[in-house]
Amino acid sequence: MSFVHLHVHSEYSLLQSAARIDGLVRRAKELHYDTLALTDIDAMYGAIPFFEACQKYEIKPIIGVEISVESASTRLLLLAKNQSGYEGLVKLVTICNTKEERERFITYEELAEFASNFVIISPFIEGPIQAAVMSGQDALAIYKQLKAMTENVYVELQPIRTREARQKLLDVSAFAKANTIRTVASNHVQFLYPEDMEATKTLHAIKLGCSIEELPTVTAEENYLTSPEEMVEHFSSLPEAIRATREIADMCSFEPPMNELHLPSFDVADSKRELAEWCDRGLHKRYGKAITEDIQKRLQHELSVIGNMGFEDYFLIVADFMQFAHREGIPTGPGRGSAAGSLVAYVLEITNVDPIKYGLLFERFLNPERVSMPDIDIDFSDIDRDLVIQYVANKYGKERVAQIVTFGTLAAKAALRDSARTLQIDPRKIDQLAKLVPSKPQTKLKDAMEVKRFKELVDGDEELARLYRIAETIEGLPRHTSVHAAGIVMSKERLDSLVPLQSGNDGLYITQYPMGVLEKIGLLKMDFLGLRNLSFMQRVLYLSREQGNAIDIENLPSSDEATFKVLGDGDTSGIFQLESQGMRSVLRRLKPTSFEDIVAVNALYRPGPMEQIPVYINRKHGKEAVQYPHTDLTDILKPTYGVMIYQEQIMQIAAKMAGYRLGEADLLRRAVSKKKREDLEQGREQFVNGARRLDYSEQDALTVYDLIVRFADYGFNRSHAVAYSMISYQLAYLKAHVPHAFMSGLMDTSLHHHEKLADYVNETKKMGIAVLAPSVTESHVRCTLEGDAIRLGLGMIKHIGYRAMQQIVDARREKRFADFFDFVDRLQHVLNRRALEVLIVSGSLDDIHPNRNELLASLDEALVFAEKEQEKRQQGDDFLFFEEDVRPTYKEAKELPLLERLRLERETVGFYLSGHPLEEAMELLSTYKRMTIAEAKEQKPHVSVRVAGLVESVRAIETKKKEQMAFVLLSDESGELDITVFPKQYKEHQLKLTPGDQLFIEGKLQEYSGELSLILDKCTTVETLMERAEAEREPTLYLFIPTVKEKTGLDELKKLLEDTPGDTKVVMKYESTNQVIRLSEMWNVGVDASFITKLKGLLGVKNVVLKNQRV
């Protein structure tokens, strides 16, 4: 007798199961199961991964679902018997998940349409038949209703756990026996091992937002993946229920269709002819009279490959929605990825990169030697991207276009915090623990156990140990669904015949299968990417046009000196791909003079090929001879000074030297990049044989092949590099020629990224462009140009929404604000007290009244005044009977102290607007050769610098050697800088590293992942420097005590000092020990010429120095 688990939940029953699919199937194999079902709740997210896991472990999969029927609390198990059953599951899950939130269930009528291809089981807990039996309702009528749909209807029985469950088991068994209804044994699997029960209950509590103690009884210790022997023993008195599991398993025989293409179609009679006609029109539009025979041949070749692969409809669809974007003025990128190498894409205006001009290869995009799905990823303005998606959905039908699901998971800290809430652990306790979890991405809880203090807390507290066990079990499980940032899937058929769907945003559906699964079942994914730089560029062009300087961004001069100067100076903030400190350093050394230099540096600035950057630069500037692996490769490698940079160069070399077709060359490139020995040897033999046929020596062929192998995995896609370098060049041109519009637009894109915004504001000032503070009387929501200055937008202010900001602007357009009271009166309906306080302390009301403290003091009166004015307006003509109010006046108050004013600015705007806390020490700091942080960031790595600033935050960590070190964020008037404090320095300076303190730091710059930080060497507080300076300004007498006088002259010196009391401080230094002693005030002396003469006679003329006082 063999048992099969037919009621099984995986992690894709979100927050209702701790069983991961791979572990589930692996454990089933260990227990010698040959068949296993998956029945997640109202979802099929895991269906294909489950099928693949079953293939891996050689287990027969049964795909099913536990679906809500007639209400959210009643469910049926549906198991697919065949292909039609699987399609029925897909349909019903879609129906269930695309209804209104409160109606997420299917009806019996909807079930009936597909039921003949299911095995239907009424579950023991939530099943409608069991519920009717226990409540005394007509359970037989429900059974007959299901039986009318399909012969295969069963009633589930589960192992006895409690007295109530035993009674239910007896009642349901008796009902089934009395009515000759088949029963089936089950264990309602929710986790793998008995010890996982608590973690599963925790998941349920997280889902319901309650504690474990408050949970209804839905999970028991027995709900694990039991062995067949255990189940047979549980149901020893009901062997027919065990036999039924095998009977059902034998009915179900189905494998999901994989790798069958379901390409979308374009609504024309002959897509091949249509594409050719579109291309012909586009060719003449792009090239006009410059069309050559080679261009014609290239176009025909590409069309032939596209046709042979059956991708005509795909190109027409992409071209169509790109035409929509162009018509609507939606900015699109010049191209992305290998698609920029297609002439067809260029003439259809899918891309804006001429592959002929830039020597790009179609075979890198679509390889006739290797049939694969086309992949044209499109960049749109991030503001307008959704308009294009809506256009596609409306044109082809929302049932054929959907967004793609992704899953938010329980990361390490979330697993801890969420679990702690269900266990009702003191929040302060969990805060202490969670803060010790390293913040770097992909951190696991096991990594946190490497932190000494974390491990001590867990090991020393049973409550935290229990928490850790639970959190580690649920860590990484999916918590909720989300939408893929860019992916869209399309099909000729209705998607709900291929993939389960659920409701998304804006009326669109979301697939329940993630991107990788969709590709496996043959659906075509397109990426509609939102690129901030395109909306930024659009804004700059608009501002420039408003200033009377219209720029044709698609037809810029290709060798503009001013543009290359911006790049060569490393002034690349805001310039796509070129902003990092490391890239700026490269550009300063490179001094680009051509577009190809930008393409090359974009391709080289990555781990691996970065080592070739100095070679490229030196060869460009004639400091190193250009060398080629063979003279016949000169034409291919000359543009990059003999450095192999692009994947396309590898393909061209293989074609030139070994006679490869370009498609074959692309296969070679892919193969050798994987570095598999067998592929490398096969590739070497093929390359050498091909080269010898073309009369190259074996040694030359081996040399070049080894070079290809070396660079194959470093080589960059030239098509992508050219396309993205176009955006870089365009933005650099705008920065060079319309800097006001550029910086305004740049700040506009960073209104809510306050650290970047502060950097951009400081750079703008360095460029000689005035930056005006946000003002309710002048600002718009976004940044604007105001003469030769840039006015910051109201949108940068924290804690106030866009609608309120826009209403301030609208109210001002109607009539200027007379005073603060008028402002509050007219905006009281959208600005509450907190919002008004934020506007005051941010300085946004300074133009109305400059004393912020007086505005705060007058706020109550202003609100009362506004309320009365509103009441008058509501009374209409009756307001004549009101007593005439005296218009309020400002309450007098001293202006806020400088540091308090600046603190509030930073709190509400994100950075200091009207100054910096260091202001009082600026003059002093300049004497210490201090750099601003912005100036320090312009230096090269390993340079020693001195900076001063405010400690914004301190993050202490423990090293692998169990030593304490820290990362400090320091800010000054120009920006922020990360400071690394290693253990030795941390031990010495720990007490100084306090948020809010002002520090003067010496250290050496280091670069990591393209970003500069400072390694602290020495550190002191700015306060100490100021005290030292103050002390040095006081009258002080410095006495140097020669060794010979230490025994013979000290008594006489003591008497001289005692006999001449006064206000001048005395500092002594002993020659023998170099010890410096500042005498206490009781030894202060009165200084005159006679006294100084006596001292010099005693100690020597050079050993007596009086500072800051004349005699």
Automatic annotation (TrEMBL):
Compartmental location: Cytoplasm
Catalytic class of the enzyme: transferase
Keyword Nucleotidyltransferase carried by entry: yes
Listed GO CC annotations: cytoplasm
Highest taxon of the lineage: Bacteria
Catalytic function, reaction form: DNA(n) + a 2'-deoxyribonucleoside 5'-triphosphate = DNA(n+1) + diphosphate
Keyword Nucleotidyltransferase among UniProt keywords: yes
GO MF annotations in UniProt: 3'-5' exonuclease activity; DNA-directed DNA polymerase activity; nucleic acid binding
UniProt keywords, alphabetically: DNA replication, DNA-directed DNA polymerase, Nucleotidyltransferase, Transferase
GO annotation (BP), single: DNA replication
EC number of the protein: 2.7.7.7
Domain Polymerase/histidinol phosphatase N-terminal: from-to ranges: 4-71
Short name of one Pfam family: DNA_pol3_finger
PANTHER family recorded: DNA POLYMERASE III SUBUNIT ALPHA
Sequence similarity: Belongs to the DNA polymerase type-C family. DnaE subfamily.
Task of the protein: DNA polymerase III is a complex, multichain enzyme responsible for most of the replicative synthesis in bacteria. This DNA polymerase also exhibits 3' to 5' exonuclease activity. The alpha chain is the DNA polymerase.
The protein's name: DNA polymerase III subunit alpha
Gene designation: dnaE
